[in-house]
Amino acid sequence: MKLFLVLTVNFVDLFLTVLLFAMLARALMSFFMMGEESGLSMILYYFTEPFILPVRKIFERLGLFQGTPMDVSFFFTTLLIGMVQVLLASIPM
Fold first, then answer.
1. pLDDT tens track for 1-36
2. What is the DSSP string of 31-85?
């Protein structure tokens, strides 16, 4: 059972790390105005958007951050992922 817990926590942590790097790459690419039709851009969008969209919908429903020039839900999602990683690291094994 302990081995299963260790493997699961390590897998989830690795997945979240890859997700954070994908979000960082997506943010950096947005500064360089690469076309939306770029292959890498599309891959990053399809990998990261399912995690950002629920946060964006919650903000829209609550009327938060309307009219801001940046996507606050993107940064908030990054913060949430980091918090989950900290919680995972605190699990005693």
1. 899 999 999 999 999 999 999 999 998 888 876 666
2. HTT--TT-HHHHHHHHHHHHHHHHHHHHHHHHTTTTT-SS-HHHHHHHHHHHHHH
